[in-house]
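Let us begin with a simple case.
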Amino acid sequence: MARRVRACAWYRVLPLVIVALFGAISFTYTFAPSALFKVFYPLDYEEYVLSSAQTHGVDPYLVAAVIKVESSWDDDALSSRGAEGLMQLMPETAQDMIDKGYVDGARYSASNLFDAATNIEFGCAYLSYLLTYFNGATDRAIAAYNAGMGNVDDWAQEDTALHNAITFPETQAYLFRVTTAQSRYEDLYPELYLGK
């Protein structure tokens, strides 16, 4: 009889352990999200991000989100297509930003895109150019950063929301990932961009 009571006691404790485990997970998620999410959404080169974003009138949270999605903060990143650095810029795009007067070519070189400060400067200039071109439409600028301005112009002619008109699954995913990361950075680092 004593053996039978002990076996029943074990079955009584198991649900309590499961409830306690879920309670601990919920408590951690509710009261420590910042510590948890900052591991997945790090922020490096804050000074460069803030300076270049301010110079070009771009939201620094957007810059951080693009960097997170493009290179995951790897300043040595190189794509198979030749895009370089943190914001994955093509050297031709960087040179175009100099030619259009967005970046001072005497101060920044389009051939130095693995340098964090240089890459962020050109990336912010390019985002500024795209935002200006699309009259401040952030979703269009983000999509164009991934798929090119011509494609976004075509999609914008559709009679639906841009996300639904995008025909490249990669660009749909990119738009979602960047906007999600931008929201995360706003939530996780409010003290950094008070002048936003």
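The second case is a distinct protein. As before, the sequence precedes its structure tokens.
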Amino acid sequence: MAKNLELVLLLDCYGELLTERQRDLAELYYNEDLSLSEIAEMRDITRQAVRDSLRHSEAVLLSTEQKLGMAARIGSMRRCLEEIRTQCAADLPDLQRITELTDEGLRLL
């Protein structure tokens, strides 16, 4: 089971939609970078139970993102803000580009 950085972001965004147990196991796997075996031992469950829970959690997170798109919008907003910061730090900032980025950021809200 390969760890996917996208799922770390989705867990941050939609983690509250998971059950407490699913969220706990997913946080240990994605945020704490523990292996399936380590988690199974810590929680006194089988490795397969951890894997099944993670697969179900991933399906919930991916399905929710597909429907709502909040993580993608947050990522786009972050890119806009980073470019605005870069423009503001420049000796000759492009004020029109800053306005465009600001408008795009507001639209994403």
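The mean pLDDT is 91. The radius of gyration is 19 Å.
Keep these points in mind for the review questions at the end of the chapter.
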